[in-house]
Design the sequence.
């Protein structure tokens, strides 16, 4: 505790950047269990494959596979979100990438991206096509058939 690999021999932040720390004091790999959350009503359920994380310093990389999302009993217009991350989310709007199937894009929107939030969840933001951003809601999912596979990173204060 309080020790790590010190990179201060190369203290050169360059240009207008400043160096906050050159001590790598945390590295960890493991698995995590995603949980369904929503902004209102009942949550969906799903099957999760082995989900992985790697923490390097404050940066946390996550990978998740949620399949067969079941929206029966949920409120259709409620936003589908995933929580249960291995460390707290300390920054707003960390992003990632994803693939999906059996999800309907709203209006003229052309893509979906994961958007991490400090309220400890990731929502799946639909954007593009000149329309404003909106979260993927339960009405956009085909109950029992929709799948989401995503990777992303966020910063933690842990």
Sequence:
């Amino acid at each position: 505790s309080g020790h790590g690999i010190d990179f201060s021999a190369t203290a050169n932040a360059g240009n207008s950047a400043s160096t906050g720390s050159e001590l790598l004091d945390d590295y960890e790999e493991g698995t995590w269990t995603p949980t369904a959350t929503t902004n209102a009503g009942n949550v969906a359920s799903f099957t999760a494959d082995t989900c992985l994380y790697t923490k390097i310093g404050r940066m946390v990389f996550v990978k998740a596979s949620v399949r067969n999302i079941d929206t029966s009993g949920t409120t259709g217009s409620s936003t589908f979100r995933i929580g249960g991350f291995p460390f707290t989310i300390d920054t707003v709007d960390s992003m990632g990438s994803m693939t999906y199937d059996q999800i309907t894009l709203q209006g003229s929107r052309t893509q979906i991206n994961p958007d991490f939030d400090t309220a400890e969840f990731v929502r799946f933001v639909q954007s593009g096509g000149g329309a404003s951003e909106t979260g993927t809601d339960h009405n956009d999912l085909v109950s029992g058939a929709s799948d989401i596979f995503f990777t992303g990173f966020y910063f933690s204060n842990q």
Summary: The radius of gyration is 18 Å. The CA atoms of residues 66 and 149 lie 6 Å apart. DSSP finds no helices and 13 strands in the chain. The chain has a mean pLDDT of 90.
